[in-house]
């Protein structure tokens, strides 16, 4: 059984579900550009239509209600609010999110709103180098203020950034995500400006909108790392890997600076915070938002593994860490090839509890992709149903052990545009037929719905 007010929700993101990319004054985002560049996305698919949620949000909210969701986490598309990211406010963009928020509240579903889930206005990238330029901090500040002003009377849970690790590493390091850049230096710069932008938005909220009485935080993603063996070297490798992954973004927010090990390894490539910036960062998250999907084994690389790491030339991201990653052959894998290890979730929650002084934690995403070549197979998604049950049970155990976990959001409400993988990877608890746009709850939706109704995983005998 979970605590009485535990928040049960599901999550989506604007570009992955909305479609209507050219409607009602929306400007282009870096993801439109990425998708229109041949060869970047599986089958050259785009978010042009996606789940057509922009036109179907009312039915989608009814679907959420029928499943018993208490909360719904979605993101605002910055280019709907300001087409070029810095100019005029677009009233039609405001109107869309007003309608969505009102509809959720009418159905007693709490809106949890992410300000940035990767759809940066294209003009900010093309004219200002996006997250590489410190100017972004003041653009993001203004955008955040517009959102608090217009929606903050009804929205009481804000998330500034979704997974800045992905923006920095996949967007500016490995080139897999928009804006598709490959570099060993840029990820650290992008991360720096992402963190400063987060802190600035929080400062605006705390100083100008305190009377709205909401909470605001950042959501980071992290997989868990088990040491391959019990050796001190492997345990250090696992710890180092977690610091390069999660502490990179969480230490500045909870402790005021990057982890020491990153300073030592990266030298000049890791930017410095001024004393004022540190002050703005420390304590800038009311809760610890965590997106968690998988686990790996970490070890100190041997000579040939080290050579492999260096040859991979993976944007400096993996070779900087000096960690060899592998899998336990007994682990089941999802359609993304991600390992299903519920105990890793529990351990990561403890790692966060220890390192950051028992913060309030929300799992803002957790879920899995299944191989669903047709609707019939999709509807019988036993692997996903088991995935939810096992991860939720592991989370419940962590709570019993003292972790202050207050909520869980399943990714995702429905199948959607899975970034570079296009529509071939389905994460939804509801199936989407992309020809008819019909939504159908899968087995996992019903299982999750039962979990919500029972406030926990109750095994039927
Ligand atoms: C998250 N990785 O993305 C995002 O927040 C969602 O938009 C996405 O649909 C979901 O997880 C499933 O992928 C991630 O490479 C993308 O470690 C890549 C990674 C992690 C999360």
Structure report:
The chain is of the alpha/beta class and 461 residues long. The protein has one domain (7-454): Glycosidases (TIM Barrel, Alpha-Beta Barrel). The protein has 17 helices and 15 strands. The chain has helices spanning 14-17, 30-36, 53-67, 78-81, 91-106, 122-128, 136-151, 164-172, 186-208, 232-254, 260-266, 275-281, 303-312, 342-356, 375-379, 382-400, 443-454, and strands at 7-11, 71-75, 110-116, 157-162, 215-221, 224-227, 288-291, 295-299, 324-326, 332-333, 339-340, 361-365, 405-411, 430-433, 438-441. An eight-stranded parallel beta barrel has the order 1-2-3-4-5-7-12-13, surrounded by five helices. Helix 16 (382-400) runs parallel beside helix 17. It is globular. The protein starts with 6 loop residues before the first strand and ends in a 7-residue tail after the last helix.
Indicate the percent of residues in helices.
Answer: 40-55%
What's the count of strands? 15
CATH architecture: Alpha-Beta Barrel
Distance between the termini: 17 Å
Strand content: 15-25%
Main sheet overview: 8 strands, parallel, barrel
Query: Which hetero ligands occur in this complex?
Result: 4-nitrophenyl beta-D-glucopyranoside
The parts where pLDDT drops under 50 for at least 5 residues are: none
Can you tell me the CATH topology? TIM Barrel
